[in-house]
What does this fold into?
Amino acid sequence: MSTTESRATGVETPAPFAGTFPDDFLWGTATAAYQIEGAAAEGGRGPSIWDTLSRVPGAVQGGDTGDVACDHYHRWAEDVDHLDRLGVGGYRLSISWSRVQPGGSGPLNPEGVEFYRTLLDALRARGITPFVTLYHWDLPQELEDAGGWTNRDTAYAFAEYARAMATELGDRVEVWTTLNEPWCSAYLGYASGVHAPGRTEPASALAAVHHLNLAHGLAVQAIREVLPDARCSITLNLHVLRAATGSEADADAVRQIDGLANRVFLGPLLDGAYPADVLADTASVSDWSFVLDGDLEITRRPLDVLGVNYYSTTRVGRFSGEGQPVRADGHKTTAASPWVAADDVEFLPQPGPHTAMGWNVEPAGLTELLLDLHRAYPGLPLAVTENGASFTDEVVEDPALGIQRVHDLARVAYLRDHVAAVGEAIAAGADVRGYFAWSLMDNFEWAYGYSKRFGMLHVDYPTGERTWKDSAYWYARLARSGRLPAVYEAGPQD
Ligand code: FCB
It folds into this structure.
């Protein structure tokens, strides 16, 4: 904790963030398998729910699929070179379940396992610490055919897959993250249907929430049975909520959405219970009978670190009954809502600036989130496992240097302000161990296809050529020095 001591009182007061991070703070970048790998039908990989959804007309912008993506499956060595050149100490990647176990249960695919073994070895050889996410939304299609996350058996299949990966990859992995953003898997996958598997069944979304929580707990248990010293984690996209007005009705809307978005995961994972108000709010949709005796002991496993993904804030109010409720949450593109039994909650437009996703930019929300978590769960280390921004990028020639450039100064400013927000949280006492920028490179942005670019490396589709944006040069300075560079220090001048 960064503090200064007041001589007069001996009381510790937080020192303001001075621009420098602790020496052991981990700087990294993040990606996910389906978004970058491509090679969808190569190397023995089986189909996942994203292969299926991306073929449904209208489901993904431009009819894009992850068939080729960034072709990372073939270009991984070049990508490891880029990571090395960036000087990052960590890299967060995900394993494609259907690449290593094509049917989601049963035999492993040795070629798929070998791909990750080789990649992890190459990272470690460069001194880059791998953080591995086991599930970044790409459920093997066979498991979806048997009910997907609405089927309790999927949680047990996930644990067996986790056990197999712990056995095969062992201590090559520094931190095992079970799930990425189960909120998206459950609500966008099963309620609004904008993510795979594209179902619009509110009751199923709640069953998915529970089976994902259960899957996490079972997987942590399985990993630790194989690797007793394994460090385990889960990554959540906790929503930082703002009330539309100071009214009691709007405060209650915040409570309701906080329950559905945040406490429905934090409760079972860290406190061992589902919040009573969430069960009451959703009683018209589900009786939660899928929660069986003993489940909440399984879901609550000691975590070594909690992963936090943060992009923006969310503003809600209670619908007054006049006109149509406003729906302004960035992920939503269809009539169905991800917010189960919350039809009278309005999601209000936020003041700008906004990114190309339409998401508002509010770095203070990240400081607030990290400090709130620190206060609620003291002793639980935190890591920002995703943060970044999509903006429209343009590749230009740099005649002086004879190279291509992308002057993405809006992205540099976004990263700078959010990294500073992490620094503020650390200065005020939060135990934050690392920061992973989303993303190493432009990639398949789910329902938005390739239309949205989050990378620090520009990817030319379809040649796959990577070009460093100014944000990459800037991030390399940060990662190498542990000191926050100014926005203008963002070119290949080093
Ligand atoms: C997060 C996802 C990640 C990426 C970013 C922009 O919700 O985890 O894969 O799509 O949003």
